[in-house]
Amino acid sequence: MSIHESTRDTADHALAAVTAGTPTGTPPGTPSPQVWPTLQARDARALVAFLTDVVGFVATAVMAGDDRDVAHAQLDWPHGGGIMLGSHSPEREWSREPGTCGTYVVVPDDAAIEALDARLRERVPGTGGRVVVPLRETDYGSRELVLQDPEGNLWSFGTYRGEPRR
Prior knowledge:
By secondary structure, this protein is of the alpha/beta class. The chain has helices spanning 44-55, 110-123, and strands at 38-41, 58-63, 72-76, 82-87, 102-106, 130-137, 143-148, 154-158. The strands form 2 sheets. Strands 1-4-3-2 form a 4-stranded mixed sheet, covered by helices on one side. Strands 5-8-7-6 form a 4-stranded mixed sheet, with helices on one face. A hairpin with a 5-residue loop joins strand 3 and strand 4.
């Protein structure tokens, strides 16, 4: 994958249709506020490539920095939400140790989790990542699998959407 310095002008990415409830003055296609896990990587460009080419995230923005390979990257999950990451910068006030992130990612249904499982079985070997827990049924009604990326971060993908708000 060729990583562009910024792909923000791409209007047709998977989440561009998310405009309902967007505050006035917010550019069209901007997702509504939500939680964005953030991590740093020793080789941020390689992690972006792994998460997009192997896993299926969409690179919405990848920006270089003067002193870092990747100052900021936004990777959107096609089913909603996303993550932000950058090159490890231990001297900065917002520093995260590479390889220590654990993230749960919602997959919408059985067909999508089966497709992701097949994709990972095909694409993960030889990348430095590994499937830690193969696709399984949980005792709380989810179908999920766990992936470790080449940096050591853990990604749990599952069909459990959380409990309804009260």
